[in-house]
Amino acid sequence: MLGIFNVLMWYFLLVLYMGQIKGVFGKYEPLTYRTGCTLWGVFFIISGACIIKATKNPTQSMIVSSLGLDILCIITGLIAIVLTVVELSKFKTVSYKNYGQAKLGREVSRVLLIVYHLEVSIALTHAIFMCGSLSQQHDDVSTPATEEAESAL
Predict the structure, then answer these.
(1) Alpha carbons 119 and 59: distance in angstroms, whole number
(2) pLDDT for 89-142, tens place per residue?
(3) What parts of the sequence cross the membrane (predicted)?
(4) Which domain holds residue 94?
(5) Which of 16, 60, 85, 125 is the 20 to 30 Å CA partner of 22?
């Protein structure tokens, strides 16, 4: 759901920044907008779909793929946090024509900064549980083999 929220916010920012008028100081095009940072929510959507499939059919390959996607989501979330903090920390003066759009865009970036923290924490928590699940499956598979070896001796 957070990934869908990110994609919708990207569309909102696209409409917001495309409507700017070139003023004396230029247009306001933040770093996260130019990199398509909020569009990276697609990774969270794909990861969520993989997690649902892994929950319904918990094979080792599905668990490993959902763990890999969780790691990808953690990395993209951390990069998005860094880019957003850099964007919010430096702010060039914009023309009076675009000031309202720039101010609204900065507020959206602040909301997205909170969402990025939520996404990273959820992906990290799920990755930890997936590692535990992989460890548990590995122990379940290896235990009967050691018991058979001990009983043979």
Answers:
(1) 25
(2) 886 666 666 777 777 878 888 888 898 899 899 999 988 988 887 777 666 554
(3) 7-25, 31-52, 64-88
(4) 2-14+22-140
(5) 85
